[in-house]
């Protein structure tokens, strides 16, 4: 070829002509090489990513939508098959009639637009194909510069090289802007007409087709006359191209459209505090930023039980006085899996997004004691181990004297059993136990239960002086409820992308056994004692005020400090923790506010278990049950008025029978010697400070 060209040029006598022809041929050859190189380079880059911002949607455990991220921009992704055929045809004929014939560029339109732009010395005329517009939506800004147009052409070439026409058209229709924060035809269809894109009528489809040319200028909600004129142009084009009949065009033009207007279109948010926790967990499991999560188009399937969430919120509303600023944090969890089924982080999310169930660290008071008594069981204690309950000064290793006190200054002035100490929440018994097993052991034991907050190994730790979260306490109690296996709380079961591809799925595995199942069962049984008035002693059991509301056998422990009120308890299938208090650590002084946590817990647990087949705690092998007289801590006789079934590891159960109650004392209705009457001790100032803890 080059030889023939040289021969032809040699015959031309005018050297200027020869040089002109040579330049033209060389330029053509160079252009061909450049084009070939561009194609090869483009091909070497591989297919460009089609990822774009989409609304992230959250689902409950049964698949109901509970919320979605759609702040400023609304985005959804729907397959091409789920978009109205009329709208697709209208869009193609309006935006790019040769879409299925060209390779990303409409050369005729480009040259026509370029001539007009050169004449005006500006970028005023557009000739972008659907492929070019999709490339701009995905990768570029909307500035009108030659540099941006070149980049747009480059990305369009890559899109055409690696993706089918249908794929490109689907992407375009899901990303084009329709105004009012609606990106994509599905978002636009929901926004303007409150329906899906496959339900659009001809009148609606032709109206929406006209908007992307000028989302503000052609918005029917802002400039109806402009939008109507644009709709008429589109219907006329469809008629002239034989896509629709004249009658159809006229009927569509005359149809009065029912716009959704500016009403609230977002899904009503359910459990907003819970959803905030989901977002944070999602960022971890997908290794994404919060911003990427919110616009990633993820379908997030959570653990939330909508009915239980409503029950929890209803219990809080029913039991809180309207004239109080008292706050609340509550979590309910399945102990076998760690799935959080309901959560409340405050009384009003709009006023405060601070989550008091996961972010607020508060002193748990006596609700911390079960961790102590598990350590005691590991160190030889049983349900009937007795210690003296009376005012006691504890001289600590550093030489200081610690003077804890019981609630309201009441003491038994005699030995009481562990069972009774737990049910009555005796502080003297707890501190003695802590010093016996050692505060360091208590810290290690609490770690086994999943408590991760800072714990100082002090004598007072037995009374819950460390600060923990509601979620931590529920996690710890779940370890007891499931027989001693480790629990990791979670809110996400599965995550998919907008097209249903699974990105994450939680694997359920048998967790590590961290507690002795026999001791875990024994402790759980002891914790049912707070509702059993057969354990009444120098005062009533701490759950007496709600015992008559409970129809099932729950285990639990309350906790009270000067500024905090707790109730945490469980059945084999559900663990719930409730905290109440003031954000500013103001003391809870009103009597009606001091028992709210227990009331919320009781009403919620009863409501939640209406739909749960109730199961009793299963007695492990190696554990035996005996009826015990609570006053003596010995085997009950027919003359013991109060008897309670208590459990022991085989070989540690009592063998002696109660001698406090005989036929004579039974006839006289005397339960215990008269010299065992409770004593109330007048507190010193220091004791009143320590009396915060119960």
TrEMBL record:
Residues in Glycosyl transferase family domain copies: 63-237
GO cellular component: outer membrane-bounded periplasmic space; plasma membrane
Transmembrane segments: 21-41
Residues in Penicillin-binding protein transpeptidase domain copies: 329-573
Keyword Transcription regulation set for record: no
UniProt signal peptide: none
InterPro entries: Beta-lactam/transpept-like, Glyco_trans_51, Glycosyltr_51/Transpeptidase, Lysozyme-like_dom_sf, PBP_transglycosylase, PCN-bd_Tpept
The reaction(s) this protein catalyses: [GlcNAc-(1->4)-Mur2Ac(oyl-L-Ala-gamma-D-Glu-L-Lys-D-Ala-D-Ala)](n)-di-trans,octa-cis-undecaprenyl diphosphate + beta-D-GlcNAc-(1->4)-Mur2Ac(oyl-L-Ala-gamma-D-Glu-L-Lys-D-Ala-D-Ala)-di-trans,octa-cis-undecaprenyl diphosphate = [GlcNAc-(1->4)-Mur2Ac(oyl-L-Ala-gamma-D-Glu-L-Lys-D-Ala-D-Ala)](n+1)-di-trans,octa-cis-undecaprenyl diphosphate + di-trans,octa-cis-undecaprenyl diphosphate + H(+); Preferential cleavage: (Ac)2-L-Lys-D-Ala-|-D-Ala. Also transpeptidation of peptidyl-alanyl moieties that are N-acyl substituents of D-alanine
Main localization, broad class: membrane
UniProt keyword annotation of Ion transport present: no
GO molecular function, one term: penicillin binding
Localisation per UniProt entry: Cell membrane
Gene3D superfamilies: Biosynthetic peptidoglycan transglycosylase-like, DD-peptidase/beta-lactamase superfamily
GO BP: any one term: peptidoglycan biosynthetic process
Superkingdom to which the source organism belongs: Bacteria
UniProt keyword annotations, A-Z: Carboxypeptidase, Cell membrane, Cell shape, Cell wall biogenesis/degradation, Glycosyltransferase, Hydrolase, Membrane, Multifunctional enzyme, Peptidoglycan synthesis, Protease, Transferase, Transmembrane, Transmembrane helix
Similarity annotation: In the N-terminal section; belongs to the glycosyltransferase 51 family. In the C-terminal section; belongs to the transpeptidase family.
Protein name: Penicillin-binding protein
Native organism: Aquibacillus salsiterrae
């Amino acid at each position: 070829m080059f030889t023939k060209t040289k021969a032809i040029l040699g015959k031309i006598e005018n050297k200027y002509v020869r040089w002109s022809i040579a330049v033209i041929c060389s330029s053509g050859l160079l252009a061909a090489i450049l084009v070939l190189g561009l194609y090869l380079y483009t091909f070497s880059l591989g297919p460009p990513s089609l990822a774009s911002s989409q609304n992230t949607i959250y689902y409950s455990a049964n698949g109901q939508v509970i919320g979605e991220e759609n702040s400023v921009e609304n985005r959804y992704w729907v397959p091409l098959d789920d978009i109205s055929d009329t709208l697709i045809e209208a869009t193609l004929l309006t935006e790019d009639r040769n879409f299925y014939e060209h390779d990303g560029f409409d050369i005729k339109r480009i040259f026509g637009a370029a001539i007009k732009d050169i004449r005006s010395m500006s970028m005023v005329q557009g000739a972008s194909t659907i492929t070019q517009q999709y490339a701009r939506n995905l990768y570029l800004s909307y500035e009108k510069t030659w540099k941006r147009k070149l980049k747009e052409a480059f990305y369009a070439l890559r899109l055409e090289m690696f993706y089918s026409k249908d794929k490109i058209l689907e992407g375009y229709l899901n990303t084009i802007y329709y105004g009012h924060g609606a990106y994509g035809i599905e978002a636009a269809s929901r926004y303007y007409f409150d329906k899906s894109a496959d339900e659009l009528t001809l009148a609606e489809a032709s109206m929406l087709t006209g908007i992307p040319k000028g989302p503000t200028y052609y918005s029917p909600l802002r400039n109806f006359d402009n939008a109507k004129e644009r709709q008429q142009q589109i219907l006329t084009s469809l008629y002239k191209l034989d896509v629709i009949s004249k009658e159809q065009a006229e009927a569509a033009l005359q149809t009065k459209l029912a716009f959704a207007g500016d009403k609230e279109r977002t899904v009503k948010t359910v459990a907003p505090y819970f959803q905030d926790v989901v977002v944070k967990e999602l960022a971890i499991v997908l290794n994404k930023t919060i911003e990427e999560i919110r616009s990633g188009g993820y379908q997030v399937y959570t653990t939330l039980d909508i009915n239980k969430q409503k029950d929890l919120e209803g219990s809080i509303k029913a039991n809180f006085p309207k004239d109080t600023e008292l706050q609340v944090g509550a979590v309910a969890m399945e102990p076998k899996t760690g799935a959080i089924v309901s959560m409340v982080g405050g009384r009003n999310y709009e006023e405060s997004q601070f989550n008091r169930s996961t972010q607020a660290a508060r002193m748990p008071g006596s609700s911390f004691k079960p961790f102590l008594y598990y350590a005691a069981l590991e160190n030889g204690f049983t349900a009937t181990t007795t210690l003296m309950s009376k005012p006691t000064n504890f001289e600590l290793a550093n030489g200081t004297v610690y003077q804890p006190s019981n609630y309201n200054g009441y003491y038994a002035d005699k030995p009481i059993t562990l069972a009774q100490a737990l049910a009555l929440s005796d502080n003297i018994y707890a501190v003695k136990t802590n010093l016996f097993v050692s505060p360091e052991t208590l810290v290690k034991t609490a770690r086994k239960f999943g408590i991760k907050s800072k714990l100082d190994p002090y004598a007072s730790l037995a009374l819950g002086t460390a600060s923990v979260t509601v979620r931590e306490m529920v996690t710890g109690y779940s370890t007891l409820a499931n027989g001693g296996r480790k629990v990791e709380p979670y809110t996400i079961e599965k995550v998919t992308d907008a097209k249903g591809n699974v990105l994450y799925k939680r694997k359920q595995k048998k967790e590590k056994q961290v507690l002795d199942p026999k001791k875990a069962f024994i402790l759980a049984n002891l914790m049912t004692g707070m509702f059993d008035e057969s354990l009444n002693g120098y005062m009533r059991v701490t759950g007496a005020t709600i015992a008559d509301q409970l129809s099932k056998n729950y285990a639990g422990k309350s906790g009270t400090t000067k500024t905090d009120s707790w109730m945490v308890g469980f059945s084999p299938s559900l663990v719930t923790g409730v905290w109440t208090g003031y954000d500013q650590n103001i003391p809870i002084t009103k009597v009606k506010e001091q028992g709210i946590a227990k009331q919320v817990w009781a009403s919620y647990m009863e409501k939640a278990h209406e739909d749960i087949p109730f199961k009793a705690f299963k007695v492990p092998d190696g554990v035996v049950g005996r009826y015990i007289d609570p006053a003596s801590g010995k085997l009950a006789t027919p003359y013991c008025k109060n008897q309670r079934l208590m459990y022991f590891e085989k070989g540690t159960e009592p063998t002696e029978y109660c001698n406090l109650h005989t036929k004579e004392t039974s006839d006289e209705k005397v339960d215990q010697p008269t010299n065992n009457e409770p004593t109330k001790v007048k507190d010193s100032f220091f004791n009143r400070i320590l009396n915060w803890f119960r």
